[in-house]
Amino acid sequence: MQHGIPTQFFEGRFIVISRLGDGGAASVWRVVDTKYDIERAVKTLHVAETETALGRFEQEVRIMMRLQSPHIVTVFESFIEEDRLHVVMEKCAGSLDTWSKMYGPMPPKLAVQVMIQLLKGLQVAHNKGVVHRDIKPHNVLIAEDGTVKLADFGLALLYLSPESLTKTGALLGSLAFMAPEQRINPSKVTPACDLYSATMTLAWLLESTNVADLYLSETIQGLREKYPCELVDIIEKGGRHKPDDRYNTAQEMMQSLKAIEHTLPESDHSLMGLQLVEVSIQDLMPTPSQPAITHNESMELKALNSVRWMLFLVVLLLIGISGAVMWQLRDAGTSKLTVDPEVVSEMPMCTQSVRSFNRLTKLGPKESVQVLFEDINQDGKEDALFVNQYSQSLSVYLGNEEHLMLESFEMPFDRSRSRPIVNDFNNDGLLDMVSLHIDLQVLLVHWGTGDMEWISPSEEAKTKLLQIPPPYSGMAYDGNEDGQLDLYLVAQNIGNKSHQIILRTGDAENVFNNHEVLASFTTRPIMDVQYPTAYWLEDGKLMTRDLLKLSQAPTELQDGLTDWKLHESIVNRQGHSEVYLTDVNSFIYRWSKEEGVCQVSEISLSERDAMYEQAFGYWDDNDIVDVLATQTCMFCTSNHVLLLGN
Question: Which of 93, 137, 91, 103 is nearest to 118 (CA)?
């Protein structure tokens, strides 16, 4: 481990992706265990660098590893690096504290269900003679499937002497949840202390804030004015001043909660879909200054190897921290947006502008994170494609005369969050696909066989190709005019955050062996869909460059686009390229050689439709642009959205 911001642990076995938390007692890091190819969390404990302190921590870790329960965070192993103990444990989606910050007070029935799970884990610990000592919302985690899990068994107290309780500040945040006897003598705790803290956590969930001591009559009276009496009776008993007056065991308190669970009203809230709140390792590092554009750069493979697997999880982070929102998914249907027209730019209106959208929706698989229009069955009509990251599939809605979203065709598709590049790469008249996989750092070539079927890629067939840095978009074009399509890939170099356009030339064996970095950018570029031209936004300017004529300087197309977003290039009905953008208010614009930059939509995209990537195309018969969008969250099913422009 390195002092400061680590990039790896345990001689490179654990690659650090992001920081999940940082406190007085420890820092928690999201990592990939390269030995088993799985995500974990590593807690680095901030302890005095003495043999005694480290020995006591190791003893505590051994205790935690013996606590086997679905409701206790699993600890896999520990190791010492640079005189600091590191604990490897399962990664969860968040904590009760995270949930409360997202949604506010928890409905009583859900709070009771949370407590029942918490008490199951607590009973296992007490049966093993282990007292948690620090139960609070921050230490109760929620797994990706919604399971409640206890974490941090006594680790904070283990290295603190009673005299240091108020000096270090490590336990100050927990005082509100401590039993009165624990505050007096924190070195002597019993299971009754845990039951008081658990009861205080239940009250906190209901209120989404700290409450006064539960043994005070005014505290209980205030709760009785808001919540069912049977629930408050349980809180009153669990929070009594004398330990002997509380519940005898966690099991006993759990049975009382189970007895009233069915009497409480149902709620639309759940624990599913919670998203990590984290800071990527790149954002923790100082950002070096970069030139605006360079070309003919070579790859830095040695540097990239030290951060292998990192980009995949960073991209997931961009999805997670942008909203941290779980959407209430709707049934499939059709509705019309009713947003008042509003002009927010001095750009002229396009000749074919959108005055309103008809909205079509379908319920899709989990984590639909990317969309595109493509005539995948070669019938002359654009089809709607959705890349489903978690479900590892591609949903295809075929274009039709009624212009409706009929039932989707589901195609197996290795985990990806990028659009595939679709073209006839081997000149057999059938469409092939090259899929881009940031996590695996590979390109997968899917040869088309007709009838909407493709051959699965494999290393033996030379259709699984290593690509570092891993690309997130691209296009195909025969740049050297040898009769074989070449790949122009857009990738991000994690080492210096630059974006690169990489050429992999096609050959007779269709393995795209050659590799050349054509150009680097400080902002994310897109490729023209028909010709190797790059577009990017730089200092509020839309720029372009012909990648087959690198000796020529970049060209400025439009100024005054500060904080705009560049989406994609498409081909219109007349066969001309169009570049689509949105401004800060999610109004749609496009650039074309014929009109320059003009405003496409008189209404903006909704906040939900603008959250993830959009695709632009022509689904129906008119020349007014249509939009694909997706609504999803981490581990959630998705809404597939088609907005038909009028």
Answer: 137
Tell me the residue length of the chain.
Answer: 646
Tokens of 14: 């654990």
Catalytic site includes residue 233: no
209: left (phi over 0), alpha (psi -120 to 50) or beta: beta
Of 33, 134, 383, 620, the catalytic one is 134
| pLDDT tens digits for range 447-495 | 999 888 999 888 888 888 888 888 899 999 999 999 999 999 999 876 6
Supply the DSSP string of 81-102, one letter for each residue.
ETTEEEEEE---SEEHHHHHHH
CA–CA gap between residue 240 and residue 118 (Å, rounded): 19
Nearest CA-CA partner of 367 in 613, 103, 18, 148: 613
CA end-to-end distance (rounded Å), the chain:
58
Query: What sign does the CA torsion over 396, 402, 405, 406 have?
Result: negative
Beta strand pairing status for 626-631 and 471-477?
Answer: unpaired
Q: What is the torsion angle, in degrees rounded to the nearest 10, for the CA atoms of residue 46, residue 50, residue 56 and residue 62? A: 70
CA–CA distance, 587 with 605 (Å, rounded to integer)? 6
Written as one letter, the residue type at 158 is L
Q: Are 396 and 381 in contact (CB under 8 A)?
A: no
Per the CB < 8 A criterion, the answer to whether 119 and 197 are in contact is no
Q: What is the CA radius of gyration of the chain?
A: 28
Residue 430 contacts residue 448 (beta carbons within 8 Å): yes
Nearest-CA neighbor of 223 among 210, 207, 237, 208? 207
Q: Are 591 and 597 in contact (CB under 8 A)?
A: yes
Q: How far apart are CA 583 and CA 562, in angstroms?
A: 8
Give tens-digit pLDDT for 167-208: 333 343 378 899 998 888 777 789 999 999 999 999 999 999
What is the dihedral sign for C-alpha 476, 480, 483, 486? Answer: negative
